[in-house]
Design goal:
The complex is a heterodimer. Chain A is mostly helical. In chain A, 51% of the residues lie in helices and 5% in strands. In chain A, strands 1-4-3-2 form a 4-stranded antiparallel β-sheet, with no helix packed on it. In chain A, helix 3 packs antiparallel against helix 12, helix 13 runs antiparallel to helix 14 and helix 14 packs antiparallel against helix 15. Chain B is an all-alpha fold. In chain B, a hairpin with a 2-residue loop joins strand 1 and strand 2. Chain B is elongated. Classes of the chains: A mainly alpha, B mainly alpha.
Chain lengths: 341, 246
């Protein structure tokens, strides 16, 4: 009886402690600690799990993205102006390159990665007296200029007299009507349909699709997440990672693949292009995202760094371990040769 | 009547054969037959016989014209790969070499409204109207790209290409549809994401608490009621505008 009472107290304290973390994270109610399995991400490691917006994660991802000035500042099609010529000293040239690098870093800032927004199903009042008076819905939008769009009240009066808050799609459409954003259309462009997406992917225009998605959709809408998922899947299937390198979307791609534990293709691509430091960052990111995997635990135990990390990852986790080990051997031989010279 | 026909026949004869329109072809044959002693007819054939032949030729040519339209109706982009097209235009765009007819040195700022009205086609039709196999369609990307500048990405003015205003409008619509479907690439504006709050915690997008019975003096949202400003802030504002206060 006393044991039962103690168990009940433990249960209550457990559930109270777990209510404290942020409401965004999915709450997994483990009643008794012994029942929770160690390999799954449970509520205990939710707070320790890194988010996309963490500075450490963001630094690693920007390192992987790279910074190719020629690609970031490639010529775009715009109104032609006569060219300007500047006569510069070496020092001025260096300063100009530095400022260009700063500008490029700003342009390569990654767009936010958010969970899908919950639908709005709020009914403010039901007035039966208005039932059947009008044949159409009426939408009332607060068009005050100074308030953020996410704090704007938009309500819909249905013909049957219900006054409800507008859904997310209606909100986006109406905000675009009253406060138009450059490049955004009221109805989504047809390029985001399956057949058209496939056609665009066959032309290797993934970066364009992602840019158009950023312009058109909000970061937490379902369409945004779906289009990003489809693009990343296609890139991973065909191994065309170079298309997104040195763009603002590469971080999102890497994070998506790490979350799905399918980063082998990306790792192999990095090794092919002799980007060993990037490969090491990718593996350390993997260990941050999946701290309970075998390779993470072994790496933590051995405190491995550099090529040793890659070896552990290749042995424990990846499916393409053969290629990774070959590439590592080749790199070690090269390093030995250069050390001998 | 006969004189006008002769005049038209001379005009049509002067035109280069490659740009002849099937409609005009059958009219040409018609006029040649009606004018009288043409090269194909002997002068002793009775007039009724010549009219029957004219009618059958007219039908054939009409059929040919209709067939040509149908051949490329389903897939207008096939025409740009065909030998006929390469023979006529080669690698040059469709509008190159076309010259508008106008008075004076400066052409009017708008091209003609339309080349084809009903069955009739004007003299010197625009590059798109003169070749019925050229169909402006949003999937016909190669044709559309001939009318877009490769350096600026903008559509050429009709005074440069020579197309009539009706076809220019169709061209704009097709180019917009092609960009919408993703056939044509274009420059996409850059979007900034800094400084935006995505928490969705505001009552406008979050869930409102169910209606409680409001106590006296209590409002639905706390910011509905009177908000008293900070005394210090009010004093500061009064100080700055002291000269304007009564």
């Amino acid at each position: 009886m006393a044991a039962l009472g103690a168990a009940r107290c433990l249960l209550r304290t457990c559930s109270r402690v777990k209510r404290v973390p942020k409401s965004k994270q999915p709450r997994v109610r483990c009643g008794v600690r012994t029942l929770c399995s160690g390999t799954r991400d449970n509520a205990l490691s939710d707070t320790a799990r890194p988010r996309f917006s963490d500075p450490a994660v963001r630094d690693l991802l920007t390192g992987i993205t790279g910074l190719d000035l020629q690609k970031v500042f490639r010529p775009v099609k715009e109104e032609l102006k006569p060219p300007t010529y500047k006569l510069m000293t070496d020092q001025q040239l260096e300063e100009a390159v530095e400022s260009a690098t700063e500008q490029a870093k700003k342009l390569l800032r990654m767009p936010p990665l958010l969970p899908e927004r919950k639908p709005i199903h709020d009914v403010l009042s039901v007035d039966e007296i208005l039932d059947g008076v009008h044949a159409a819905k009426y939408v009332f939008t607060d068009v005050t200029y100074d308030i953020p769009h996410r704090e704007r009240f938009i309500v819909v009066r249905e013909p049957d007299g219900t006054l409800r808050k507008a859904s997310w799609e209606e909100r986006d459409r109406l905000v675009q009507v009253y406060f138009p954003k450059d490049g955004r259309k009221i109805t989504a462009p047809l390029v985001f349909k399956e057949e058209n997406l496939r056609m665009v992917f066959s032309q290797d225009r993934h970066e364009d699709v992602l840019d158009m998605c950023l312009v058109q959709f909000e970061p937490d809408s379902s369409d945004y997440i779906r289009v990003h998922g489809a693009t990343y899947e296609d890139l991973e299937k065909l191994g065309k990672y170079q298309l997104l390198r040195s763009t603002r979307h590469f971080g999102g791609l890497a994070w998506y693949l790490l979350g799905a534990r399918r980063a082998d293709g990306l790792l192999v691509d990095m090794l092919k292009r002799d980007l060993l430091q990037d490969a090491v960052s990718l593996v350390s990111l993997f260990h941050m995202v999946h701290p309970h995997s075998e390779s993470a635990q072994e790496a933590a135990g051995q405190r491995a760094a550099g090529a040793a990390l890659l070896k552990i990852y290749a042995q424990k986790e990846s499916q393409k371990s053969g290629y990774i080990e070959l590439a590592l051997q080749a790199y070690e031989q090269l390093a030995a040769k250069s050390a001998a010279d | 009547m006969a004189a006008s026909f002769q005049g038209i026949a001379k005009l049509l004869g002067r035109l280069s054969p490659s740009f002849s329109h099937p409609l005009r072809q059958y009219r040409l044959c018609l006029q040649r037959l009606r004018v009288g002693p043409g090269p194909c007819l002997s002068p002793f054939v009775p007039p009724s016989h010549s009219f029957c032949k004219a009618l059958s030729l007219q039908d054939e040519n009409a059929n040919q014209a209709a067939e040509a339209l149908l051949r490329y109706k389903e897939s207008p982009w096939d025409y740009l790969e065909s030998e006929e097209y390469i023979e006529k235009y080669g690698t040059k765009p469709v509008w190159e070499g076309y010259r508008r007819n106008h008075k004076g040195g400066i052409p009017p700022q708008k091209t003609r409204k339309t080349c084809i009205r009903g069955d009739k086609i004007c003299a010197n039709p625009c590059p798109v109207c003169r070749d019925p196999n050229i169909i402006i369609h949003y999937q016909n990307v190669k044709l559309l790209q001939q009318f877009i500048s490769p350096q600026t990405g903008m559509v050429y003015d009709p005074t440069r290409t020579g197309v009539c205003m009706k076809r220019q409008k169709k061209l704009h619509e097709a180019i917009d549809a092609a960009k919408d479907h993703g056939f044509l690439p274009f420059q996409i504006p850059y979007v900034e994401f800094s400084g935006e709050d995505y928490s969705n915690s505001h009552d406008a997008v979050g869930s409102t608490s169910p209606p409680q019975s409001l106590a006296s003096g209590e409002t639905w949202y706390k910011w509905y009621s009177e908000i008293t400003p900070d005394e210090k802030e009010v004093a500061k504002v009064r100080r700055t505008y002291k000269a304007y206060l009564k």
